[in-house]
Design brief:
438 residues; alpha+beta; 6-stranded mixed β-sheet; 4-stranded antiparallel β-sheet; globular
């Protein structure tokens, strides 16, 4: 664990945000080179950087299997979210800092903590690795530009394995061993509303002149019903979750919901998170309060994100969202809906030998059986891998749990999760190998 902490500190210090508008691209290159060197030192062969179609670099490597043994793919990503509001951080975002038993820093959990988890597991095994290994650590997962998704189908032999260990999720809570079986899909659109040829003086024209910002507000409000739940005409919104529950008070604590503020929607928390669509207004372009003029806005736009559960066709969801927004426009306002991107939902099959081996490993490492969880986040790569390797088992796990606050200021990781999940991985590789020889 001292080495794990030192390595995570080195990784967090590399501000590998894969957006050249915010951070120089050489930071991502340095992170990729660090990852390649570390896995080569941990015993992988043919470790190299491969350029993907979006210009990012994936770290690839392999290790041949012992005779008759299966092969396992290890996945993670080294790019991170931008720090956002640095003034909201209680510690420097790119300096690993221990505080109240947790390790803080951007990427400490998502997903550099998972890279260190892989390395720790491999070093625990040393030369006694009982399976073949494939490695892929990508560099643009957070930006959603699809570099690795485009790379995989054309380089399938480089990544082919019996089980794919996708380490970009985590446990339901610290100390609760969990595997993720469901991922919601994603639709992002930008809606633009226009009502006037240009902004007009509110004293001379306000009243009858149609306000584009007011029109946009009405349209966005129409995406929710009376209790705040997502309501998009034509989109099924009453699914039920069958896996592990999520206690309401725990959710309020994890999400930082202020005292007295109500939660949105109906049904269980798990229903709302993992079995139903969820809409979020990510941003609005409109005049700021400071510096705003006494004028009727002629144009306004918003970025809207829709998460959809398995069983929902993402293309149809995108069309339905656009149709709803256009139909909700008041006063004949002109509306343009531009689709930014989509990602399909995913559901893993969990009845194969890899899941049996993982449950055994988690019981030994944590002293309790494996739980099943959904994730609100989207990992489009999972659908590409499932389509490219239809016979492989796909497992989603990792060190991320709700208190990590991934994508937010003050991201952190509980070091005991790195320790125990590394143990889980090392045990799993052995138990999975045994399942092919027994």
């Amino acid at each position: 664990m001292p080495r794990a902490k030192a390595e995570l500190a080195e990784l967090v210090a590399l501000p590998s945000v894969a957006d050249p508008r915010q951070f120089p691209p050489e930071h991502c290159r340095h992170a990729a080179e660090w990852v390649a060197s570390a896995f080569a030192d941990a015993g992988l062969q043919n470790v190299r950087l491969a350029e993907t179609p979006d210009g990012s670099h994936a770290v690839l490597g392999d290790r041949p299997p012992p005779p008759g043994a299966p092969t396992v793919l290890l996945y993670s990503h080294y790019d991170v979210q931008p720090p956002l509001d640095e003034s909201a951080w209680r510690t420097p975002p790119f300096e690993l800092t221990e505080r109240d038993g947790r390790w803080y820093g951007r990427g400490a959990a998502d997903c550099k903590g998972n890279i260190v988890m892989h390395l720790t597991a491999l070093r625990a095994l040393g030369d006694d690795i009982p399976v073949g290994l494939k490695l892929v650590v990508e560099g643009s997962e957070e930006q959603g530009t699809g570099g690795l998704e485009a790379y995989v189908p054309h380089h399938a032999d480089e990544l082919r394995a019996d089980t794919l260990l996708i380490c970009d999720t985590g446990n339901a809570a610290v100390g609760v061993p969990t595997v993720t079986t469901v991922l919601r899909g994603l639709v992002n659109v930008v809606v633009t509303v226009s009502t006037l040829a240009g902004d007009m003086h509110s004293g001379m024209f306000g009243g009858p002149a149609p306000d584009a910002l007011a029109a946009l507000i009405r349209m966005l409000d129409s995406l929710r019903d009376a209790d705040g739940g997502t309501h998009i005409t034509g989109l099924h919104s009453n699914g039920a979750w069958q896996g592990v529950d999520y206690e309401e008070q725990q959710f309020r604590t994890d999400a930082g919901v202020l005292s007295g503020v109500e939660l949105l929607g109906s049904g269980t928390i798990a229903d709302r998170l993992w079995a139903r669509p969820a809409v979020t207004v990510l941003g609005i372009d409109c005049p700021p309060v400071v510096g705003s003029a006494a004028a009727v806005p002629a144009r306004a736009r918003a970025r809207v994100s829709l998460r959809v559960p398995p069983g929902t066709d993402v293309e149809r969801a995108a069309e339905t969202l656009a149709e709803h927004l256009k139909a909700a426009a008041p006063w004949g306002a002109r509306v343009d809906v531009e689709r930014e991107g989509t990602g399909s939902p995913f559901r893993a099959s969990s009845d194969g030998p890899a899941y049996v081996a993982l449950d055994r490993a988690m019981r030994e490492a944590y002293g309790r059986p494996m739980s099943y969880l959904g994730q609100g986040g989207s990992i489009p790569l999972c659908n590409v891998l499932a389509a490219t390797f239809p016979q492989a088992e796909l497992i989603l796990m990792g060190v991320e749990e709700p208190r990590c606050l991934i994508h937010a200021p003050n991201e952190s990781v509980d070091p005991t999760e790195i320790e125990r999940m590394a143990l889980v991985e090392a045990l799993f590789l052995g138990y999975y190998a045994d399942s092919h020889t027994s």
